Amino acid sequence: MLIFEHCSYLARNPIVLEVGKDVSHNFKQLFHFHPGIEIIFIHNGEGKLIFEHGAYDVQPGTLLFIKPYQPHYLQMQISSTQPYVRSLLKYETGYISEYLKAFPHLYQFHDRLCSDPSVVQVQQMPQYEQFGKFLTESSDRLELHPSPNRLEGRALILVSILHYLYPLWKSDGGAKQPAYAAAPVVSGVMKWIEENYDKEFELDVLAQAVHLSPNHVSQLFRKVTGKTIIEWLTERRMKQACILLKTTTRSVQEIGEKSGWPNFNYFCYIFKKRMGMTPKQYRYH
Question: What is the per-residue pLDDT for 188?
Fold first, then answer.
């Protein structure tokens, strides 16, 4: 099920910072999206990140940049001998943009990360132990400051992290997928769904677009993502409906049509089944 995480706490605390935290025991594999940006650095653990446009292997040293309203979920292989340890920065875009205006190149870099669809969002950090040490030292220094000053300190840490990352992202040009992207055909399916989710779905048309038989493409997609094509399509449509309900004044019927459900009654049925409430209730929740 696709979950919309409201992140209402970002209004009170627009930058959340957690460094080197072992989240093995309370980690939940949820397919979700949210308005804030997430930067995640993997200190320890292996698994897979699923975006709407690809599936990527993650391992120690992997850095993830997750855009606002971007559906994603991590599938981590957690055991007693392999914990999941990560650093997390979650922040409100507009807040940090004010800080970045004093640094034009970083401002443009951050804007490109957020808006350019060709940007590589999954990076394997070179000499990642040094980056981990940089995060730990920055967090330790923050603890030396009085509590009222720590939001400002977190903002400065975030600016420093972007300054650290800027030459690394710049060097690869941000135009190619990383070598460890899994199953290019699956990425093609996700891209096709992204471009056609609001239209009537025909598996034969999709299969023809990626040059495979319907049965083969269905099996491959489920093997890589753990979801069927219909489940993925439904969750993409659900994302669009949630965004439109929260950010526009369009009628519920029009939102259903724009999201790929021309049948109003079926839209209301599937929305309530997935989200646990009607579209109208969700809009005002």
Answer: 85
Last residue of a domain, one of 122, 141, 172: 172
> Which pLDDT does position 4 carry in this prediction?
65
Asked if residue 177 is part of any domain, the answer here is no
Q: In this predicted model, what pLDDT tens digit does every residue of 6-17 receive, in sequence order?
A: 677 787 889 999
100-124 per-position pLDDT tens digit: 999 999 999 999 898 887 788 999 9
Least confidently predicted of 169-178, 197-206, 266-275? 169-178
Query: Quick count: other Cβ atoms within 10 Å of Cβ 212?
Result: 18
Q: What does pTM read for this prediction? A: 0.71
Provide the number of structural domains found in the chain.
Answer: 2
Cα Rg for the chain, rounded, in angstroms? 20
